[in-house]
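Subject: design request, 143 residues
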């Protein structure tokens, strides 16, 4: 969070995406933005009582929150912003979708095992080449 909206801009899109899609704000809650102000590089130092707009609740049928809705909301417990932290929301998301992810992983594992078995079966012809006729007795078996 201390790197939010710095010159390299590497962490800003990730934090914005998490807060927007998980409907959360900060790590534990919105007041994390205020606590991180003393470590901040640029944005938080100038916005001590603010949270990013991605913390704000969106109105129905509204993709982006109202601009500047996070001003003065860093104290948390507001009707305007999401009060749950992203850590809690991420754990809830993992717990919700863990069975689906486990089943998908097992399906992929079985699929890969089948593909490897089939490729090993067909690769013997490429390695050995076809069996010459003088070594077969009509049943395509070695004599």
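Subject: RE: design request

Done. Sequence follows.
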């Amino acid at each position: 969070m201390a790197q939010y909206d710095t010159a390299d801009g590497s962490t800003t899109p990730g934090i914005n995406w998490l807060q927007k899609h998980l409907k959360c704000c900060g790590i534990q809650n919105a007041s994390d933005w205020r606590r991180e102000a003393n470590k901040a590089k640029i944005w938080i130092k100038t916005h001590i009582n603010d949270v990013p707009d991605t913390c704000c609740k969106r109105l129905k049928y509204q993709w982006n929150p109202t601009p500047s809705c996070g001003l003065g909301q860093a104290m948390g417990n507001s009707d305007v912003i999401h009060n749950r932290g992203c850590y809690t929301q991420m754990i809830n998301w993992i717990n919700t979708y863990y069975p689906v992810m486990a089943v998908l992983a097992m399906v992929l594992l079985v699929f890969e095992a089948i593909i490897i078995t089939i490729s090993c079966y067909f690769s013997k012809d490429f390695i050995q080449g076809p069996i010459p006729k003088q070594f077969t007795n009509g049943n395509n078996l070695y004599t």
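The mean pLDDT is 76.
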